[in-house]
């Protein structure tokens, strides 16, 4: 039992490695319903590479922790510098990370690229504690808003006199999206910071008061999914839940019109 | 009038076996690092003060970055510069000069010169403080309050924070005067503390000029 | 010769008449007393913040539970009674996570390792009688205590404690109507932070001045223990980074109480009512909530390294002592710590990838963030190389140091996931982030504190902690710590957001309740296990086995004087240093360790 602690540490580390690895092989991400598969790929590659590092370093830690325990006749080596070793592991690490970085930056550029011209325009305005969704209607133009005109009946301060606003369609906590057509969402907020999170679409954009922030993506499968708020916004943050309905692109206008009644 | 004999050791060098206190208290001052480093005769209090000035500078750098970002807003309406501020600035800078004179007079063992210099510093500092409050009053009379517009917000805030640090400096000044009171006073403590205080005071003067330039020239 | 006499004379001159209890133990200027004061206060704050965490975990596991007695004892936080089950209020939940984070980050984990062990160890490890500014040091503790009192009092004022998250993002934290905690509670938060920052600044001045100016003869910077390097770097980080939060806090205060608009944009509509003044114009105009985030995280990121670096320093010192082997790659380890510290200033935007900031700026931050993984990895490799072909003696401190390495690997790797800006879109503000920082920052810091406590307990109280109890404490903590925080990676990937009072309002999160329950049970056991530590700490302080000068056969200067050291640290002259502190198992030396102050040998290591 003299070497119990080392054995325990080695075993505990092994258990960690096995359990962690096993659980990481499970499918935790919400099923992907958008074109942002590159994000899932990036996550998968990251899992593999960091997973390998995790396994190897922990196995070394476990083994060294057990193998090199003190005992009769044990001697520690007197070796404390190797510039070559330092160089090697520094450069290898840097090289692997550089590859990650390169891919990450490319992906980021794609995600932040300009939306295609045929993207469906939608505005989502968060407030405590609901999602106001607005469609521009037939004219394709979102009417002006003026927050001075906001009220109980007009939560986003729509300027009713603006001709472009007349055909705007307003929904509460319901978002209709077209399958296989790009969608451009303008994310806004009336009060505090919220965050427009579509877990199935790999979409998350903070809703900043005073700003209108553009994002775009393409839904790829029909179905009903959820909107979550991903930035603490007050007492109702936990129930700032909305629903996303992805419908065939041809049916979008009809679905929105029906829902707006 | 006979000049009092003051200690001729210049401020900055610390004798190795003597325990002297900085402006904040009496503490043992070690030998420093003969074998390993270059700091054998570097005064810890001076080093600490410079570190503190670094921190205060970072505070104003933070404010500066906020100001620069805000300055580009479309709703920017400039604040009029009360001319009084130029007089205040002159008073503060002159007080620094008076303080330098006082410091050098002390080193030259001239008690009378020291006293005159310190008196002038105190007077000019008071003029600055009074002038700042008056400048605020003038702006309020013109309808510019803390919340009136971003320019006024930054002006009041930055001049206020500067004045707060200057207030701390005035407390220190009072301590310095206390240390240097009387016809016969602890020379090395007085000399070192006066030099340290002078560094801080000059910094406050430069900082004020920086604030003025940032708010009104930039 | 004259040199030693001068030192002895100085030491004698330092002796004075016996001090009254209040000057010796209460308003002390002795760095050892101050260090212990900081340490004990921080541990008590940890108890409180830990209890808050238990409440959070119970709520997440069983939102529908009847809180019973707890609900009865805390009527402000719960609704119920008179035949109705007690249910937690959402505003209370918001206060819980806000205050848990605030207290832990600032009042526990910036304090115990830095102000606690920094104060205790710096003069001892650099060979000085005390810190450079003892009066300022004492003042810094009492200022810190004012901060503690302020933050704890905030629970009992007005509508309760701040509830905008420890990050206090405006407009939520700036608008008094946005959440109850943003009434007077948030103001108390600001005041507490000002006290804390003032205290930390005073400490930082002491740290850098003492380390630069008061090292004993022969102790060059590259002969200092890594603990000293960590304290030095942490002090610099604090001095340069905290002012951003000071400035931001002032601006937040002005926005809250004086109608300014530093962080508040035009057009705020709260509860469907535009926030207009008597003139029909918006009260606040033109401010930027993003500005707060930039300023906050400019501090916030170096801050998390302030929490972590001392643990890395402790780990190197503890590992080498208990595996009887020289630290591998001393210069690389120092370089890595300097690189981490420097890089920590240019990565803050990785907290803001989805905030709406300029995407090009975000790219720049991603670069720095990924880069910082390099020196971090280097440290892990050097520790592994140190352990290789060593001779490990598993005393309690060693277990904690190994735990730090383990947590640093786990927590550090998840940083690579988060630092890539696009995958972060899915992971930001989920429990994946919570897993990351609890493992690498909180975990490393906590394990570092526990290891340092076991290691340097002799220098605090002149006794040894009970090693058996210490080991039990380690094992319970190690296992349940991972049990509590590792599964958060999975629920984060599944999209479980942070700071939600009841996650099961969402269909897609309902299936995660069992995992949340598992983590809560782990957390409760983790919390309860800390009783082992408190019992060990207080019992050993009074009744523990008395410690000799150097019970671990370690090399640092702190082990050349009695346990605990006398006032003035060495009764005679301060030792001079002739080597680095990692001279273990040198085959040419008579024993398996050569202390720093021992006379030069025929052949030295070159350090």
Give an overview of the whole structure:
The complex is a heterotrimer of chains A (261), B (218) and C (607). Chain A has 261 residues and is an alpha+beta fold. Chain A has two domains: 97 residues, no CATH class; 140 residues, Cupredoxins -  blue copper proteins (Immunoglobulin-like), CATH 2.60.40. Helix content of chain A is 34%, strand content 22%. Chain A is built from four helices and ten strands; from the N terminus they run H-H-H-E-E-E-E-E-E-E-E-E-E-H. The longest helix of chain A is centred in the N-terminal third of the chain and has 31 residues. The model of chain A has no long low-confidence stretch (mean pLDDT 96). Chain B has one domain: Cytochrome c oxidase, subunit III, four-helix bundle (Four Helix Bundle (Hemerythrin (Met), subunit A)). Chain B has a two-stranded antiparallel sheet. By secondary structure, chain C is mainly alpha-helical. Chain C has a single domain, classed as Cytochrome C Oxidase, Chain A (Up-down Bundle). In chain C, helix 6 runs parallel beside helix 8, helix 8 packs antiparallel against helix 9 and helix 10 runs antiparallel to helix 14. The two termini of chain C are 26 Å apart. The interface between A and C is large, with 103 and 118 residues.
Characteristic key phrases:
heterotrimer; B: 218 residues; mainly alpha; Four Helix Bundle (Hemerythrin (Met), subunit A); two-stranded antiparallel sheet; 2 strands; 2% strand; C: 607 residues; two-stranded antiparallel ribbon; 4 strands; disordered N terminus
**What would the principal axes of the Cα set say about the shape of chain C?**
globular
Topology of chain C as a string of helices (H) and strands (E): HHHHEEHHHHHEEHHHHHHHHHH
Helix content of chain C: 55-70%
Instruction: Tell me, briefly, the overall form of chain B.
Output: elongated
The largest sheet of chain C, given as strand count, sense and whether it forms a barrel, is: 2 strands, antiparallel
Q: What's the quaternary structure here?
A: heterotrimer
Short précis:
In chain B, 66% of the residues lie in helices and 2% in strands. With 218 residues, chain B is mainly alpha-helical.
């Amino acid at each position: 039992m003299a070497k119990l602690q080392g054995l325990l540490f080695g075993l505990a580390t092994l258990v960690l490695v096995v359990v962690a690895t096993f659980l990481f092989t499970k499918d935790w991400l919400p099923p992907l319903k958008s074109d942002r598969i590159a994000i899932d790929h990036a996550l998968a590659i990251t899992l593999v590479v960091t997973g390998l590092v995790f396994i190897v370093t922990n196995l070394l830690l476990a083994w060294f922790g057990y193998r090199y325990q003190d005992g009769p006749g044990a001697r520690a080596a007197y070796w404390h510098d190797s510039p070559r070793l330092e160089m090697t592991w520094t450069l290898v690490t840097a090289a692997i990370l550089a590859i990650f970085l390169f891919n990450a930056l490319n992906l980021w550029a794609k995600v932040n690229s300009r939306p295609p011209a045929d993207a469906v325009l939608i505005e989502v305005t968060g407030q405590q504690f609901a999602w106001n969704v607005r469609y521009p209607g037939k004219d394709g133009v979102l009417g002006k808003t003026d927050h001075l005109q906001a009220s109980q009946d007009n939560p986003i301060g729509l300027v009713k006199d603006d001709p472009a606003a007349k055909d705007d369609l307003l929904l509460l906590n319901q978002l209709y999206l077209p399958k296989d057509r790009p969608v451009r969402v303008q994310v806004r907020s009336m009060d505090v910071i919220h965050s427009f999170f579509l877990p199935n679409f790999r979409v998350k954009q903070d809703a900043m008061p005073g700003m209108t922030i553009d994002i775009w993506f393409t839904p790829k499968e029909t179905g009903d999914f959820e909107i979550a708020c991903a930035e603490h916004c007050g007492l109702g943050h936990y129930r700032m839940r909305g629903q996303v309905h992805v419908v065939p692109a041809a049916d979008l206008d009809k679905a929105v019109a029906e829902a707006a009644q | 009038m006979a000049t009092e004999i003051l200690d001729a050791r210049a401020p900055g060098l610390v004798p190795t076996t003597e325990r002297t206190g900085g402006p904040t208290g009496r503490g043992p001052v070690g030998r420093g690092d003969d074998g390993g480093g270059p700091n054998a005769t570097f005064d810890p209090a001076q080093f600490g003060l410079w570190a503190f000035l670094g921190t205060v500078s970072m505070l104003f750098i933070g404010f500066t970055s906020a100001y620069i970002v805000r300055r580009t807003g479309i709703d920017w309406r400039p604040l009029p510069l009360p001319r009084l501020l130029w007089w205040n600035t002159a008073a503060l800078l002159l007080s620094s000069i008076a303080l330098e004179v006082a410091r050098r007079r002390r080193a030259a063992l001239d008690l009378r010169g020291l006293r005159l210099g310190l008196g002038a510093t105190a007077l000019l500092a008071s003029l600055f403080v009074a002038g700042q409050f008056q400048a605020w009053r003038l702006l309020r009379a013109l309808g510019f309050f803390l919340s009136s517009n971003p320019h006024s917000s930054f002006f009041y805030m930055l001049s206020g924070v500067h004045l707060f640090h200057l207030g701390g400096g005035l407390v220190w000044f009072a301590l310095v005067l206390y240390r240097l009171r009387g016809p016969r006073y602890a020379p090395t403590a007085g000399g070192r503390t006066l030099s340290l205080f002078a560094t801080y005071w000059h910094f406050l003067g430069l900082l004020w000029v920086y604030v003025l330039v940032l708010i009104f020239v930039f | 010769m004259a040199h030693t006499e001068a030192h002895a004379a100085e030491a004698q001159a330092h002796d004075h008449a016996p001090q009254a209890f209040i000057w010796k133990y209460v308003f002390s200027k002795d760095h050892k007393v101050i260090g212990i004061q900081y340490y004990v206060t921080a541990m008590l704050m940890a108890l409180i913040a830990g209890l808050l965490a238990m409440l959070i975990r119970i709520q997440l596991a069983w939102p529908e539970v009847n809180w019973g007695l707890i609900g009865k004892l805390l009527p402000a936080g719960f609704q119920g009674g008179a035949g109705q089950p007690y249910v937690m209020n959402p505003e209370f939940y918001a206060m819980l996570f806000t205050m848990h984070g605030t207290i832990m980050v600032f009042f526990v984990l910036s304090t115990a390792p830095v102000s606690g062990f920094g104060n205790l160890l710096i003069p001892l490890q650099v060979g000085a009688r005390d810190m450079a500014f003892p009066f300022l040091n004492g003042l810094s503790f009492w200022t810190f205590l004012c901060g503690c009192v302020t933050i704890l009092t905030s629970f009992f004022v007005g509508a309760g404690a701040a509830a905008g998250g420890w990050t206090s993002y405006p407009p939520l934290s700036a608008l008094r109507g946005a959440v109850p905690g943003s009434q007077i509670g948030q103001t108390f938060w600001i005041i507490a932070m000002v006290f804390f920052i003032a205290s930390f600044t005073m400490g930082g001045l002491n740290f850098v001045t003492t380390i630069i100016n008061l090292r004993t003869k022969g102790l060059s910077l590259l002969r200092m223990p890594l603990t000293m390097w960590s304290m030095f770097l942490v002090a610099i980080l604090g001095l340069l980074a905290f002012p951003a939060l000071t400035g931001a806090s002032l601006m937040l205060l002005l926005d809250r109480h004086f109608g300014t608009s530093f962080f508040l944009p035009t057009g705020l509509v709260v509860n469907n009512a535009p926030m207009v003044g008597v003139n029909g114009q918006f009260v606040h105009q033109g401010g930027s909530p993003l500005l707060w985030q930039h300023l906050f995280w400019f501090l916030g990121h170096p801050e998390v390294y302030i929490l972590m670096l001392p643990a890395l320093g402790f780990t190197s010192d503890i590992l080498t002592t208990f595996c009887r082997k020289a630290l591998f790659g001393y210069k690389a380890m120092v370089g890595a710590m300097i690189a981490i510290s420097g890089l920590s200033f240019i990565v803050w935007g990785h907290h803001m990838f989805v905030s709406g900031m300029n995407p090009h700026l975000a790219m720049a931050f991603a670069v720095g963030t990924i880069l910082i993984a390099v020196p971090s990895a280097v440290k892990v490799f050097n520790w592994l190389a140190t352990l290789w072909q060593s001779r490990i003696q598993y005393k309690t401190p060693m277990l904690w140091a190994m735990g730090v390495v383990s947590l640093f690997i786990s927590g550090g790797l998840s940083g690579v996931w988060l630092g890539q800006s696009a995958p972060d879109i899915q992971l930001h503000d989920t429990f994946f982030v919570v897993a990351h920082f609890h493992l690498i920052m909180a975990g490393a810091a906590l394990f570092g504190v526990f290891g340092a406590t076991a290691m340097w307990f002799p220098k605090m109280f002149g006794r040894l902690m009970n090693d058996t109890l210490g080991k039990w404490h380690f094992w319970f903590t190690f296992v349940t710590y991972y049990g509590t925080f590792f599964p958060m990676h999975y629920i984060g990937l599944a999209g479980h957001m942070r700071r939600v009072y009841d996650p099961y309002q969402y269909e897609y999160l309902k299936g995660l309740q069992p995992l949340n329950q598992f983590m809560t049970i782990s957390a409760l056991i983790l919390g309860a296990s800390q009783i082992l530590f408190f019992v060990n700490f207080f019992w050993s302080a009074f009744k523990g086995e008395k410690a000799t000068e150097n019970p671990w056969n370690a090399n640092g200067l702190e082990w050349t004087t009695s346990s605990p050291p006398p006032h003035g640290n060495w009764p005679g002259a301060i030792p001079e240093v002739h080597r680095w502190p990692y001279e273990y198992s040198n085959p040419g030396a008579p024993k398996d360790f050569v202390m720093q102050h021992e006379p030069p040998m025929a052949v030295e290591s070159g350090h």
